[in-house]
Write a structure and sequence with these properties.
single chain, 330 residues, alpha/beta, 6-stranded mixed sheet, 4-stranded parallel sheet, 14 helices, 15% strand, binds pyridoxal-5'-phosphate, threo-3-hydroxyaspartate ammonia-lyase activity, pyridoxal phosphate, Ser/Thr_deHydtase_PyrdxlP-BS, EC 4.3.1.16
Length: 330
């Protein structure tokens, strides 16, 4: 069973999602940093989705989608393929809504992620990522068990849910001049753009990708979706190969620009978050701040963000501790 509606989401869907998420998702805090303000000569506002339930914004889109299942879909349950934050978000949302969940993960996924997904009550089905096709396996399972497959970004309810993070930020911090948002498949960016159109039309929204995986930047320049091989980057949440059929048009029509940053810049941002702001951020979660810094040109005396009010969406904080320790020590 697949989800029926593929109509592009609008701001009304974001507002409806916010209503559904009330009391279910955390209203995450907006943090400030004098050090960052001084460095960029701007006022920065960090929206901390690393402090969201399951450690990333993905809970918003997952819960918003599952909450709209029909009774029959609810009874059969949900299926997702993911080695990352989408898995945990679906697993917890399914538990909260009392429905079965199956998550298809590569057999060599980090043990901590599998354990976390199981702890939220989902059944984990593994596959060999080198010899088996996960989409075929997922489709087969979904068909066999009548479960509904929920994709990580290219679905209207997922996009609308992700947009609620930026909605909260715009409502709490008026008159933002810029908002920086990371880009994988573009669900978070597309949702943020819908929120910006309605709540902060003056705000320029900039997407940020890893340098080695700049497919969205290429797509924006080309005017159509560009697909790339799976990129090598420490930003594992942004190792997507292409934007989605639904996310691309929204990004093409409304994003100010898409920029990219190196893994080295991401590691510097991780250290900044740990040392100065006392928060744990995963590499992908640091894209937006690294992007704001690169955009400003502050490192070379640049002043592009001087005097501006700048939102930075920190997307997640799930990182294996041994790996995190290596990033901090390097
Ligand atoms: C999924 C994810 C992203 C990318 O989000 P998209 O909606 O696919 O663009 C970024 N950061 C984190 C922490 C994620 O889990």
């Amino acid at each position: 069973m697949t989800l029926p509606s593929l109509t592009p989401p609008t701001y009304d869907d974001v507002a409806a999602a916010a209503h559904r998420l009330k009391g279910m998702a955390h209203h995450t805090p907006v943090l400030r940093s004098t050090t960052a303000d001084d460095l960029l000569g701007a006022q920065l506002f960090f929206k901390c989705e690393n402090l969201q339930r399951t450690g990333a914004f993905k809970f918003r889109g997952a819960f918003n989608t599952l909450a709209q299942f029909t009774d029959e879909q609810r009874e059969r349950g949900v299926l997702a393929f993911s080695a990352g934050n989408h898995a945990q978000a679906i697993a917890l949302s399914a538990r909260m809504l009392d429905m079965p969940a199956v998550i298809v993960m590569p057999a060599d996924a980090p043990a901590s992620k599998m354990a976390a997904t199981r702890a939220y009550g989902a059944q984990v089905v593994t596959y060999d990522r080198y010899t088996e096709d996960r989409e075929a396996i997922s489709r087969h399972l979904a068909l066999e068990r009548g479960m509904t497959l929920v994709p990580p970004f290219d679905h209207p309810h997922v996009i609308a849910g992700q947009g609620t993070a930026a909605k909260e930020l715009f409502e709490e911090v008026p008159d933002l001049d810029y908002l920086f948002v990371c880009v994988g498949g573009g669900g978070l960016l597309a949702g943020s753009l819908l929120a910006a159109q309605a709540l902060a039309p003056q705000c320029r929204v900039v997407g940020v990708e890893p340098e080695t995986g700049n497919d969205a930047q290429q797509s924006l320049r080309a005017g159509h979706i560009v697909r790339i091989p799976t990129p090598h980057t420490i930003a594992d949440g942004a190792q997507t190969q292409a934007l989605g059929e639904l996310t691309f048009p929204i990004i093409r029509d409304h994003a100010e620009d898409i920029i990219s940053v190196s893994d080295e810049q991401l590691m510097q941002s991780l250290r900044f978050f740990a040392e100065r702001m006392k928060i744990v951020v995963e590499p992908t979660g640091a894209l937006a701040y690294a992007g704001a810094q690169a955009f400003s040109g502050a490192d070379n005396g640049g002043k592009l963000l001087h005097g501006e009010r700048v939102g930075v969406l920190i997307s997640g904080g799930n990182v294996d501790l041994a790996r995190y320790a290596r990033f901090l020590a390097d």
